[in-house]
Design brief:
two-stranded antiparallel sheet; 5-stranded mixed β-sheet; alpha+beta; 18% strand
């Protein structure tokens, strides 16, 4: 996984291998998803279809860069291995409209969504510039899927009408994924307490 490779890079590995960095996904935190299902169980209409998601879509590249930024060192650029297609501060926030709506995304997300930048197998690898040197990201043909849905973006309008508001950002999702193996500087999220019989079963 991306997270395990970032953790390995911090300790020993010198290269990250990945597939299609331009696939966009609706990354959701499990606690937000559970909250949505509980809300639907209580207030949803029978036989009505609802989409559950975060209300945003971000590229695999944004996920990777954010994981490097939180788990290794601050990211300040990304480029093709030959130095071309260089984007400074790729994780800067962007709120331009896409799909008719504004949602949380990054500078690199916006550039790819509007087809102003493209990273693919022909680039061979990407170089991620950080405060602690360059991270090489190899684009591995074996990790590319033959059939890939380019963009997954859940329309949660009906869920919002019931009062649903996702609490977790992409950054907090990744911070929680990194936390079991290492502390994440700047993340203000309490660790998840292990489940016990006492806190799962009410005696009242």
């Amino acid at each position: 996984s991306i997270i395990s490779q970032v953790q390995a890079f911090r300790s020993a590995a010198r290269e990250i291998c990945i597939g299609n960095v331009e696939a966009f996904r609706d990354w959701s935190h499990v606690s937000d998803t559970v909250e949505a299902y509980l809300l639907l169980a209580e207030h949803g209409r029978t036989a009505e279809a609802y989409n559950v998601g975060s209300g945003r879509t971000n590229a695999v590249l944004t996920f990777l860069l954010t994981a490097i930024d939180l788990g290794f060192a601050n990211v300040h650029s990304v480029s093709a291995a030959n130095g071309k297609k260089k984007i400074e501060m790729p994780l800067n926030p962007d709120r331009t409209r896409f799909f008719g709506t504004a949602f949380d995304k990054t500078k690199i997300d916006a550039l790819m969504l509007h087809r102003k930048i493209h990273y693919g197998l022909s680039d061979g690898a990407l170089h991620v510039g950080t405060d602690n040197g360059t991270v090489e990201v190899k684009l591995d043909p074996a990790k590319f899927r033959r059939a890939e849905v380019p963009i997954l973006f859940a329309d949660i309008t009906k869920l919002r009408r019931l009062g649903f508001r996702p609490k977790h950002t992409l950054q907090s999702i990744i911070a929680d994924m990194l936390r079991p193996a290492q502390p994440v500087s700047g993340a203000n999220f309490a660790p998840v307490q292990p489940a016990t019989t006492e806190n799962l079963i009410s005696t009242h």
